[in-house]
Amino acid sequence: MSTSRFLDAVAAAVLVFTLTVTSVLLYFGGRADVVEAMAPVREFPYGEVFDRFQVMEVEIAISGEDWADMLANPLAEEYKRCDVTVNGCVYTDAAIRTKGNTSLTQVASGDSDRYSFKIEFDHYDKNKSMDGLNKLVLNNLFCDAAYMKEYIAYDIFRFIGVETPYYSFAHITVNGEEAGCYLALEAMEDSFVSRVYGGEGQLYKPESAMAGGGGPAGFGEEEGGKPPEAMDWELPDGMELPERGDVPDGAEPPSKMEQPGRAEAVNGMEAAEERKPPDGMGHGGMDGPGDGNGGFGGFGAGSDLVYTDDDRDSYSDIFDNASFDTTAEDEQRVIKALQKLNAGEELERYLDVDACLRYFAAQTFIVNMDSYYSNLKHNYYLYENDGKLTILPWDLNLAFGGFQSRDATEAVNSAVDTPMDGLEDERPLFSKLMEVEEYKERYHNYLAEIAEGYVDSGQFSEVLSTVRTAISPYVEKDATAFYGYGEFVEAVGTLEVFVLLRAESVEKQLAGEIPSVSGDRNQDTVLVDASGIRLSAMGMQGGDGAGGKGSRDGNMFGGGERER
User: Is 447 left (phi over 0), alpha (psi -120 to 50) or beta?
Assistant: First the structure.
């Protein structure tokens, strides 16, 4: 990949800062504590915009015709020219489009215009950026009544030392009209790789076909995907794609639809636990070999990171979703690493083991099944450099039991050594690390560090309180909110209790007071009681309980009065 245009944009600032750092280090004789304090030398100028405890102001100016067309055809994900003002700084000739996967299709099928967006500053001129940032993501906080689930999830990853995109909240207006309070993210593309990895290496966003990816055959949020109506592969027997606003026969509208359990059938497909692919489709994709992960979202080609053979097409879930142009050599390095991973050989050579263990500790703690952990096996990035793989977090709005959880006590007590509910052996990046006792112990230590250092220390509650104070005025006047302000208040309180109880359960599991393997539990097992928590209060998959839309008088799927 080439990121020179971003490096050039910040080269002068970095040079000046480096000279300053050098002078300070000479003055202090190279003391370690001073060196650590100067860590911001890695920061890019756009990092100043992402103040975690301040709300970013984003003003979008776009022609009325283009804006109307975008709202009328959101699934096209077509870029439109716009000017963007961020905290008073104007960036002209940028491009904006809708983004998302399930969230995009569900909002499009309802009566809300609160879409997530991508703003690409270099779309029309490759020399342009927002102080070095090539793309800004604005997430609409779908299924997040607390507005903070994704934020807190990223904060936990950040706390434990996992590389994350920059994140903060943003107040958005479009042509002077209120658009709402969003979560702003640094896109994990050119700028991110330049900032974090010095522009070296390759980045992939694996997506299984049924999770909405797979490049041309899928309908993921990245440029390679297509919206549902453009899918060109055969659907399972008995399954049809609804028109916008339609509801499948016998199903409730999404706002009323119950979250399906793993043993339940979904829209004419076989239940997930049976892991049977649709008629005519092999386990490993359309025709290729696989790992036996059929069922809902289970028939991908490589997104589980299972090694099958040396054919790049066996890993289309990965390579068709590359962030940058790749070569055959790039792809073979990934395949070689997967081969070694699955064999459990030379793990330190082919994996950034410590980074992966930190990732899994945070991922397990936040109970995020809409991820590598479920049959969908998506919502993560895979970074490769010199044949070594690292897993990185993305798309965390369904963390804290918002996906596939049946009740709060089950979610709070999710087993730390079997966090995938039986899929562990089919997810080698986790299982092969856990086979090494030293790595498993380190994973446990990182879990304990999150529970004790982030939660028990009071840091979590302090962050939650600070952010709540910062965003509350914006939430209260949010013109496009999916939820009412009263629901926001309840959701934030629920989120705080959930995380506190999760820390308690994790600590008891690590101490042996609660079995850390779900299969070792029985009716006599005493779990941390979370029966007083209503998970749906925080927002769940399917938009359960979602409040009003832009008109302020109905929920996102129609019906229901928004709390004022």
Answer: alpha
3-state class (DSSP) for residue 216: helix
Q: In the numeric block, which tokens belong to residue 139? A: 């997430």
Residues 396 and 421 sit within 8 Å (Cβ to Cβ): no
494 touches 149 (CB < 8 A):
no
Cβ within 8 Å of residue 472, ≥6 positions away? 488
Write the burial class of residue 72 (CB in 10 Å: 0-12 exposed, 13-18 middle, 19+ buried): exposed
Coil, strand, or helix at residue 154? helix
Pair 97, 116: CB distance under 8 Å: no
Neighbours of 131 (CB within 10 A): 19
- From the list 493, 544, 556, the residue with the least C-alpha distance to 144 is 544
Token pair listed for 74:
């959101």
* Sign of torsion over alpha carbons 226, 262, 368, 496: positive
Query: What torsion, rounded to 10 degrees, do the Cα atoms 241, 245, 246, 248 define?
Result: 70
461 burial via Cβ count (<10 Å: 0-12, 13-18, 19+) = middle
Residue type, 189: E
pLDDT digits (tens, 9 = 90+) for 411-469: 999 999 999 989 999 999 999 999 999 999 999 999 999 999 999 999 999 999 999 99
* Region at 145 (left for phi over 0; alpha for psi -120 to 50; beta for the rest): alpha
Model confidence, pTM: 0.78
